[in-house]
């Protein structure tokens, strides 16, 4: 039976003009729709977003997903699709994937990512393959890939990194340390100034003696 322009009793076994479907036909799901202060029953082949179909001997019903940010679910506590902006992981929805998992953007799911081991100790400070003869150098540490990602498109985190370090031996044993070019230039310039000053002082003394 139809009441008004909308077939609110479609698929019903029993129906009310004011409340819509009260009981549904076999295999259909009863869904209680709310619109403002009004609510009425519908009989649907599949439940709407945010609900899942619960089959019981008495009557099949649409039950609300109890998982936060879930768009559709398999059961009350297991989500199958999250709302926009959230990633699905083991039946739950997350803004970002947990540690050890990577975001698969095309499906908005978290998959097993690239797993790496612990960092090694920092290596010896060196520069140009030498551990002496310079004031500053670089030291490096590494870590190994323990488990490769399920998808080749998922990048692994960095497995090597370097940082600036101070050399333990600035002068190489048995070798002569060479000053950098800039330091040599400064020393040479200072020496030239000293020599010029001494020369001018000698000329002044000689002139002074002659005048006497």
From TrEMBL:
Gene3D superfamilies for the chain: Hormone Receptor, Insulin-like Growth Factor Receptor 1, Chain A, domain 2, Thrombospondin type-1 (TSP1) repeat
PROSITE patterns xref list: TSP1
InterPro entries xref list: Furin_repeat, Growth_fac_rcpt_cys_sf, R-spondin, Rspo_Fu-CRD_dom, TSP1_rpt, TSP1_rpt_sf, TSP1_spondin_dom
Disordered: region residues: 177-212
One Pfam family here: Furin-like_2
Bias type Basic residues, positions: 177-191
Residues in R-spondin Fu-CRD domain copies: 9-110
Main localization (coarse): secreted
Keywords: Developmental protein, Disulfide bond, Glycoprotein, Heparin-binding, Secreted, Sensory transduction, Signal, Wnt signaling pathway
Domain Spondin-like TSP1: 114-167
A single Gene Ontology CC term: extracellular region
Gene Ontology molecular function, alphabetical: heparin binding
Entry superkingdom: Eukaryota
Protein location: Secreted
GO biological process, one term: Wnt signaling pathway
Matching SMART domains: FU, TSP1
Secreted found in the keyword field: yes
Similarity annotation: Belongs to the R-spondin family.
PANTHER family: NEUROHYPOPHYSIAL HORMONES, N-TERMINAL DOMAIN CONTAINING PROTEIN, R-SPONDIN-2
Protein name per the record: R-spondin-2
Organism: Pheucticus melanocephalus
């Amino acid at each position: 039976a139809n009441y008004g322009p909308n077939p609110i009793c479609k698929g019903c076994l029993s129906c009310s003009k004011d409340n819509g479907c009260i009981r549904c036909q076999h295999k259909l799901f009863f869904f209680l729709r709310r619109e403002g202060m009004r609510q009425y029953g519908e009989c649907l082949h599949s439940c709407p977003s945010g609900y899942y179909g619960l089959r019981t001997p008495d009557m099949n019903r649409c039950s609300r997903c109890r998982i936060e940010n879930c768009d559709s679910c398999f059961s009350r506590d297991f989500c199958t699709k999250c709302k926009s902006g959230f990633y699905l992981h083991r039946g739950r929805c997350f803004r970002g994937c947990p540690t050890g998992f990577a975001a698969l953007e095309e499906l908005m799911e978290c998959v097993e990512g690239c797993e790496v081991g612990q960092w090694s100790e920092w290596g010896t400070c060196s520069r140009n393959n030498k551990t002496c003869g310079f004031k500053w150098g670089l030291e490096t540490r590494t870590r190994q890939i323990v488990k490769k990602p399920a998808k080749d498109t998922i990048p692994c985190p960095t497995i090597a990194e370097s940082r600036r370090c101070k050399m333990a031996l600035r002068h190489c044993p048995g070798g002569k340390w060479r000053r950098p070019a800039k330091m040599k230039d400064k020393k040479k310039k200072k020496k030239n100034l000293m020599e010029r000053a001494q020369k001018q002082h000698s000329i002044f003394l000689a002139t002074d003696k002659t005048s006497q």
